[in-house]
Design a protein that fits this description.
Pfam families: F-box
Helix content: 55-70%
Number of strands: 4
Structural class: mainly alpha
InterPro entries: F-box-like_dom_sf, F-box_dom
Organism: Cylindrobasidium torrendii FP15055 ss-10
Protein name: F-box domain-containing protein
Length: 382
């Protein structure tokens, strides 16, 4: 039997040296550089997969590209010009004007096919088909229209704060700087033929185009009265034509917006009609049938659901209408939630069909037989 060890026994010299070697000594610090090198070495062995995407549109000859773009909608052509710098350079060049004009030919109404040279086709596409402020880049909601005279599409705060335009208070200050002795009567005449923004109420000031106003001041400050009358008559006639052109653009923009609203309404109506058909198909596949009153005055099932639900359960009928009238496509996720089916069942619009009823009765008979078999086993054991 080995001798019993005493707690006060001192370890031997060899044991102390061995313990000191492993416990008292510092741990060797690992070099992170070695780990990084090993990681890089391992990763270098793995093949790196890089997908090279070639923009084949840039390889098309320019004349063929212009012919393709001439069949696009102006808004699509505008979006295409923003894809990369190379395409933008091509479509913003003077040679691309044929493509832009051909694109506008398919949509513009008679009378506004020719616009002034100061309004290029890309800018016209921006004014007609984009509802985004040029200043703050925020969408302009509602019936906000571009300022066709000023060639911009801006909200009122950006329009008043833009350095390119003059408010009524700034007109007199600019006049004193350009022509200090300018006549007040002439100034009122120039204000009448200067491109300006639309009047939008008592709290929105009319703004004028700064460059046009200063150019007219410098052009007329040294004219005599007779020369100014001749100049003003020609300028007023030109301004009337310019104003009529802007009015036609405004009417065309309103027409296009109305067409877009009607198209969107028709699209939503088609989606809603398809949703109702999908609901009927799904609850029919689930084994349910329609339970309509015989004295119903509506021919369609959904008309009966939407307009004569007062005789049904209130909350369930309301939920049924709300879920069925949504103008969004019916998805599997929404149907699997069971809200639509349960609301139709609770409101009494659909009931179990013969196939589903037979299946339920078969399950009940199976349960009864299993229950009877378990009872017989318990009696036999007793």
């Amino acid at each position: 039997m080995p001798p019993k060890k005493n707690k006060s026994a001192k370890p031997s010299k060899n044991t102390a040296d061995a313990d000191t070697k492993h416990t008292a000594g510092k741990r060797k610090r690992s070099d992170n550089n070695d780990l990084v090198l090993c990681h890089q070495k391992d990763s270098a062995k793995k093949p790196r997969l890089e997908e090279e995407i070639f923009f084949r549109l840039l390889e098309i000859p320019t004349d063929i590209l212009y012919e393709i773009c001439s069949h696009l909608h102006p808004l699509s052509l505008l979006h295409l010009s923003r894809t990369c710098k190379t395409i933008r350079t091509i479509l913003m060049s003077e040679a691309s004007r044929y493509a832009w004009r051909s694109s506008f030919e398919s949509i513009l109404l008679d009378g506004i096919r020719e616009v002034r040279n100061d309004l290029c086709e890309p800018r016209l596409a921006t004014l007609l088909f984009e509802n985004r402020c040029d200043g703050c880049q925020k969408p302009r909601r509602g019936a906000a229209m571009p300022e066709f005279m000023l060639r911009v599409n801006m909200c009122q705060p950006c329009l008043e704060n833009s350095p390119e335009f003059l408010k009524m208070d700034d007109v007199y200050e600019v006049t004193r700087k350009v022509a200090p002795d300018y006549s007040t009567s002439r100034l009122s005449c120039i204000e009448g033929v200067t491109p300006h923004g639309a009047d939008k109420g008592a709290y929105c000031y009319r703004v004028y185009d700064r460059a046009s106003f200063i150019e007219m001041l410098e052009e007329t400050k040294d004219l005599t009265d007779d020369e100014f009358k001749t100049w003003f008559a020609a300028e007023r006639e030109n301004f009337v034509l310019f104003k009529d052109e802007c009015k036609q653009l405004w009417e065309f923009k309103a027409y296009m917006d109305d067409e877009a609203k009607q198209e969107n309404a028709h699209r939503k109506a088609d989606i809603g009609a398809q949703r109702l058909k999908d609901i009927v198909t799904r609850f029919t596949d689930a084994g349910y049938v329609i339970d309509r009153p015989e004295d119903s005055r509506y021919k369609d099932f959904w008309d009966d659901v939407f307009y004569s639900g007062s005789s049904r359960r209130g909350d369930s009928a309301f939920d049924c209408k709300r879920l069925a009238m949504r103008q969004v496509p019916l998805t599997d996720k929404e149907w699997n939630k069971g809200d639509i089916l349960s609301s139709l069942i609770d409101s009494g619009w659909i009931v179990e069909g013969e196939k589903l009823r037979n299946l339920r009765e078969k399950k009940e008979r199976t349960k009864q037989r299993a229950k009877g078999a378990r009872a017989d086993k318990r009696r036999m054991k007793a």
